[in-house]
Specification:
Number of domains of chain A: 2
Order of helices and strands of chain A: HHEHEEEEHEEEHEHEHHHHH
Number of strands of chain B: 11
CATH topology of chain B: Rossmann fold
Structural class of chain B: alpha/beta
Low-confidence stretches of chain B: none
Mean pLDDT of chain B: 88
Distance between the termini of chain A: 26 Å
Low-confidence stretches of chain A: none
Largest sheet of chain A: 6 strands, mixed, barrel
Oligomer: heterodimer
Distance between the termini of chain B: 16 Å
Strand content of chain A: 15-25%
Mean pLDDT of chain A: 89
CATH class of chain B: Alpha Beta
CATH superfamily of chain B: P-loop containing nucleotide triphosphate hydrolases
Strand order of the largest sheet of chain B: 5-4-1-2-11-10
Number of helices of chain A: 11
Shape of chain B: globular
Structural class of chain A: alpha+beta
Largest sheet of chain B: 6 strands, mixed
Helix content of chain B: 25-40%
Largest interface: A-B, 26 and 33 residues
Number of helices of chain B: 8
Radius of gyration of chain B: 18 Å
Number of strands of chain A: 10
Strand order of the largest sheet of chain A: 3-4-8-5-7-6
Order of helices and strands of chain B: EEEHEEHHEHHHEHEHEEE
Shape of chain A: elongated
Strand content of chain B: 25-35%
Chain lengths: 398, 249
């Protein structure tokens, strides 16, 4: 039996001390875990909601601009942007969508460019030139679903009447109402360029329509459809595009609000945790010092019997670890009980039924590590007292 | 045979205006020896025990040796005590020394078996059967799992004696070991203790007021002589033994 187990045995002999000092730790650590659990649960749910909704990462450039291919290439090189697709003129990016047989359902909708990595589409889905994605409202109006076929149409005036642009599409995906409000459709950039060229009077060889040579058409675009890589990148991109002269609209303020809330709550929590930890450090040190003072004669006897000076530190270390381990177990039990009650009662208040109070296993492990770190500090503190325990004390104490 | 030889080992203590100076001029302990330091209260008996039992650090030590079998593996305790940063004397205490105090001082959170085996463990010995035999010899028939709180004062003191001897030390130090017992129990306990010490070849040094008991149990008594001058009390212990010629390292 070494001095470590002696410490445990001595503490077990004083189970009341173990109970009360453990409860003392639980009284500090339990509320801290709950506070952090609530902060983490609520903020994590809000952040998850922000992150899961790609519209929060959208950078909208309002107005008409002249965007060159070099600009597009530059934007694509920015690591903060995850999706960059050039937009044709909005007035030329409209189609009459017709569900066969003709005349069954028809809607005119704005069409936006899609492409690889479109955040509104399922991961990995890339639209082909004969595929189209619809917003939920538009699909509802047209009474179509994924897999249905429809026809995209537009007309231009010519000397002797009208010419019609017609493109057959298969509905590849219906986009969630939260991510694509209103009636919108999404197809390839090539299709939109073709449509714009048609409306501007250029030839459309695919459809055997004659017009001005395509070679004379300028290669500039009116705008760009943009998405930031993360919500944290939105504010920076907002500022960067504004500096380039664009009229920018983003959700940066909402994102910043939640991120700031997270930062501020983390600061408040840290402050409370530091104060609580200091209080507990003093309390645990007082308990261990009291225990050492009470058992000083016995410790001196153990020294006299041949335990080295340094090994005596195992005595309060064992007791500190046992007290903090028991206190942590009590705290965890308190946390789990209260968190369960709170989650049953309040979970409906957060998006997607997220839990209002929760902690990840890693956070529990960090809390346990922090508790043991406090024990380490306390043991080093009280260890100085142990260095003064001389083997001669027990001889003179009688 | 292992010897403990102290010559010119001194300590000075200050208590307010009073200065107490103890000089162990000569003291030698070897296998089978029984010595008793006797003297009045306050004469420095316990301080002498501190120094000889390596519990306290002397102010000076002209010659203080633990001499191993046949003079080999000797340890200059005086030199080691002077700079014992790594507390290496702890292992000497654990291995070579046993202690019996005025009260049993058993660790209350350990059973009597654990109390005894702790001493063995610290000494690097593992002999449960011998520990049991010593307890039986001392008349403690209770199981190892008994807690000290279940024992009488006399039984506790006997367990303390068992703890001091269970690791077969070379030297047994006993400070008024029977002061808490009635005369008959004291005689019986100390007698058994000496029998076991003889059996394992341990030297015994006892501190006592009881000259009669010391004589009865064949102790060589070493009287502390004290001299007072103004605020200085000077005490000397001298058993008349010469210092060792030269300890072999």
């Amino acid at each position: 039996m070494n001095v470590f187990f002696l410490g445990l045995k001595a503490l077990w002999r004083q189970r009341t001390l173990l109970l009360f000092t453990s409860a003392g730790l639980a009284a500090v650590l339990g509320p801290l875990l709950l506070l952090y659990g609530f902060k983490f649960g609520v903020i994590a749910a809000l952040l998850a909601d922000l992150r899961n909704n790609p519209t929060n990462r959208e950078i909208v450039l309002r107005g008409n601009y002249v965007v060159h291919p070099a600009d597009i290439a530059k934007y694509r090189s920015w690591k903060e942007l995850s999706f960059v697709q050039p937009e044709t003129r909005s007035i030329a990016a409209r189609m009459e969508l017709v569900v066969p047989p003709p005349g069954k359902e028809t809607r005119v909708a704005g069409v936006l460019p899609s492409g690889e990595g479109d955040p509104l589409l399922p991961k990995g889905m890339v639209l082909a030139s004969d595929q189209i994605a619809l917003s939920a409202s538009l699909a509802e109006r047209l009474h179509v679903k994924a897999g249905d076929r429809l026809l995209g149409r537009n007309q231009r005036g010519v000397d002797n009447g009208y010419e019609t642009f017609e493109a057959p599409f298969t509905v590849a995906y219906v986009i969630d109402r939260r991510f694509a409000p209103g009636e919108r459709a999404y197809t390839t950039v090539d299709m939109l360029v073709k449509l714009e060229a048609f409306l501007d009077g250029y030839e459309v060889p695919d459809l055997h329509l004659k017009g001005k040579p395509l070679g004379e058409r300028p290669d500039t675009m009116e705008s760009v459809r943009l998405y930031a890589r993360t919500i944290e990148d939105v504010l920076e991109l907002d500022h960067r595009f504004a500096a380039l002269g664009f009229d920018v609209y983003t959700h940066a303020d909402e994102v910043a609000g939640v991120l700031n809330l997270n930062t501020n709550l983390a600061a408040v929590f840290t402050l409370i945790a530091v104060i609580g930890s200091l209080g507990y450090t003093v309390s645990l040190a007082a308990s261990l010092l009291g225990n050492i003072a009470q058992q000083r004669k016995l410790l001196s006897l153990i020294r006299l019997m041949g335990a080295g000076r340094g090994t005596l530190i195992l005595f309060p270390l064992a007791q500190g670890l046992a007290i903090s381990g028991a206190g942590f177990a009590l705290s965890a039990a308190l946390f789990l009980a209260v968190a369960r009650l709170a989650n049953l009662r309040f979970s409906g208040m957060l998006p997607d039924g997220a839990l209002v109070c929760r902690l990840e296993p890693l956070q529990f492990a960090a809390a346990l590590g922090g508790t043991f770190a406090v024990v380490g500090v306390v043991v080093l503190w009280v260890g100085r007292t142990l260095l003064s325990v001389s083997p001669a004390e027990v001889l003179h104490a009688e | 045979m292992t010897w403990l030889c102290a010559h010119g080992v001194a300590q000075t203590l200050q208590d307010g205006q009073r200065t107490f100076h103890l000089d162990i001029a000569a003291m030698t302990l070897g296998a089978g020896m029984r010595k008793a330091i006797v003297g009045p209260s306050g004469s420095g008996k316990t301080t002498a025990m501190d120094l000889l039992a390596l519990a306290g650090r002397p102010r000076a030590a002209e010659s203080f040796w633990l001499i191993g079998e046949d003079g080999k593996n000797s340890l200059d305790l005086g030199q080691r005590m002077g700079r014992d940063r790594r507390d290496r004397l702890a292992s000497v205490r654990a291995r070579y020394f046993g202690y019996v105090l005025q009260t049993a001082m058993l660790l209350p959170f350990l059973t009597i078996g654990e109390n005894i085996l702790l001493a063995q463990r610290l000494a690097g010995v593992n002999d449960r059967d011998f520990a049991r035999a010593v307890l039986d010899e001392l008349g403690i028939a209770m199981p190892f799992s008994t807690f000290p709180s279940a024992l009488s004062v006399g039984q506790r003191q006997r367990v303390a004696v068992a703890r001091a001897l269970a690791h077969k030390p070379r030297f047994l130090f006993a400070d008024e070991p029977t002061s808490a017992l009635d005369p008959e129990a004291a005689r019986r306990t100390l007698g058994t203790c000496l029998d076991i010490a003889s059996a394992i070849g341990a030297a015994v040094l006892v501190i006592t007021h009881d000259h009669a008991l010391a004589r009865e149990l064949d102790f060589e008594t070493v009287e502390i002589t004290t001299r007072t001058q103004d605020d200085l009390v000077a005490a000397v212990i001298d058993d008349g033994t010469p210092p060792p010629p030269k300890a072999a390292a």
